[in-house]
Amino acid sequence: MGRRRDSTKFKEFNGILYGKNYDPLGKQWLLFIPKHLEGILKSLHDAPIASHLGFAKTYDRIRRKVFWPGLYRSVRRYVSHCRECQRRKSPPQRPPGLLRPILPAEIPFAKIGIDLLERFPLTTQGNRWIIVCTDYLTRFTVTKALRSGEAVEIAKFLVEGVILKH
């Protein structure tokens, strides 16, 4: 039988050191190999089958198999400095803003909505775009085919087709 030495955080059995696992669903003692920590990180994060899964999954995968003090900090540092993860990671996106109701206008054409529909097949008149202007109060809609979606053509439609007529 092997020699045993107990402490609160570590246990040695047959010359192999184990660390206490505080996860109630996991093994009670996990292997502790201080000389191979970097290799373990590489094999459980960088290997082709590891897939560079990010901090949370890498940490969870390692903490179930081995123990070392400062594991959380080590994995966090390692993953945050991984070039492959930084290259693949999508940029952070801001959450969508709060939706607010659009209150109806008091008089027709005081509030309008405009949509520009693009790249339709070329018509015989040379048009590819359609502009749609809708009054929020009456739902009255004005449309026109346009040659381009440029600001000058849109402004001309708004002035001549909407503002001066309504």
From TrEMBL:
<dbReference type="InterPro" id="IPR012337">
    <property type="entry name" value="RNaseH-like_sf"/>
</dbReference>
<protein>
    <recommendedName>
        <fullName>Integrase zinc-binding domain-containing protein</fullName>
    </recommendedName>
</protein>
<feature type="domain" description="Integrase zinc-binding">
    <location>
        <begin position="38"/>
        <end position="90"/>
    </location>
</feature>
<dbReference type="GO" id="GO:0003676">
    <property type="term" value="F:nucleic acid binding"/>
</dbReference>
<dbReference type="InterPro" id="IPR041588">
    <property type="entry name" value="Integrase_H2C2"/>
</dbReference>
<dbReference type="InterPro" id="IPR052160">
    <property type="entry name" value="Gypsy_RT_Integrase-like"/>
</dbReference>
<dbReference type="Pfam" id="PF17921">
    <property type="entry name" value="Integrase_H2C2"/>
</dbReference>
<dbReference type="InterPro" id="IPR036397">
    <property type="entry name" value="RNaseH_sf"/>
</dbReference>
